[in-house]
Amino acid sequence: MNKRKALINILTSTIFKVIIVIVTIFARSILMQQIGEEATGLFSLYTSIIGFLAIAELGVGTAITFSMYKPIVNGEKNIVSALYYLYRKIYLIIFTVILSIGLLLTPFVPMLAKDNTGLFNIYGTYLLFLGAQVVTYLYAHKTSLINAHLDNYVTTTIHSLGLILTSVLQIIVLHVTKNFTFFFLAIIAGNIFQWLVTAIIFNKKYKGYINYNKTLDQEIKKDVVVKVKALFLHRIGGLLVNTVDSLIISAIIGVSILGFYSNYVAIMIGMVSVLSLVFNSITSIVGHSFAKNTKEVYLSQFKQIYVLNFVIAFIFFFGFFVVIDPLIIILFEEASVLPRDIVLIITINYFVQFMRQATLTFKDASGLFYQDRFKPLVEGIVNLILSLILVYILGIQGVLIATIFTNLFITHTVEPFVLYRYGFESKVKNYYLINYGLMAFFTAFLVGIYYIPLPSFNNHFIDILVLGSGAVLISILFFGIVCLFSKNARQYVVNWYTSVIV
Fold it and tell me: 0.90 cut: is pTM over it?
């Protein structure tokens, strides 16, 4: 792997992401404090609706970026140029489709916000958010070409600065005007900033890679189309699993309850996104490695990244579970704290999803989109049906349990099978035993922590410091003991350090 670019991408992404998580969560906190939980719930609802509309993207970006890896390595400028223009054309179509469907859905948005008070202009704020999101499709083709050259740090920097600008503007307008409409105008300003800066940097540094050739070999075009069709199904499944959860909670339980739930999810997703950068930033590098190395080397790299995946997941989700309640009280208010059993299920749900990171990184980098194209569709339909049944029986817990079920018994079965069979050309049985064993161990461990009364020091900042430090120390002690008694564990640490750090 290209260690230098991987390190630059990871460091840049991590630094910016930490800043973004802080400012975006702070902006959300100000939104809750200045305007209320209904506004927070509506913002989450709009995000889910637009996320569902993003199905029109069809996974084109991932497919074409993957298709660019090999011609870039081989210096085939004609192919890269043709893919770039194909990407631009498709995204202009996507821009039109999402904008059109989004406008057609406008009259139905209030129906999805159960128990809304009518205090806010739902139509106007929704349309502003729609406009803010579709703008991003006007420069996506340029972002893709930059990433395909392994310069993710460039696009990460631009995107991060745009998000920071958005959050700062939101905090200012909320304090000064307490106006929900201006909150969305800040998002538009941040996205336009990203568009302009991306265009400037692309024209200065990357335009030379384009020779204006727009003719693409039919064999390559056919391969791209096959991958796009497969990724379309992946998009449907992913949206049915993740986006529909919020829509069900808002439409059946209530938009204000969605606001409380989304506070936990916002913090969870923000922090997980920081952790995921370790994997996102090396996807392009892994893609190049797949094109160069043997299956044995490629499998060895995967095992190292998988071990890293579990270590990160154990430490973070354990820490999240013990500190999240005092953190919610500090950022929002004590009334926003959810029952402890819901927090437990939220934590387990995202832990199970996060344990896919290593598999997804190598699967995407290998271009294995077609082989499991029907998996996400089945997963999404099963999740939707289970969620609609269990939400009436268990409430929010039912929606989350449905997601956990589909992830465990569909996603964690099919994705590794495809990667091992077509990517590594190896048997997957041992991976199943290890993966399900580790997830079962962590779940049992977390349930045990759930039944242990956590100490409180009557100061939420001290609670976070003590409980968070305790979680990290316990995690380090646990992994230290594992390495002490397991030769394989020690070897993984040595291999990971040698191949990734040195």
Answer: no
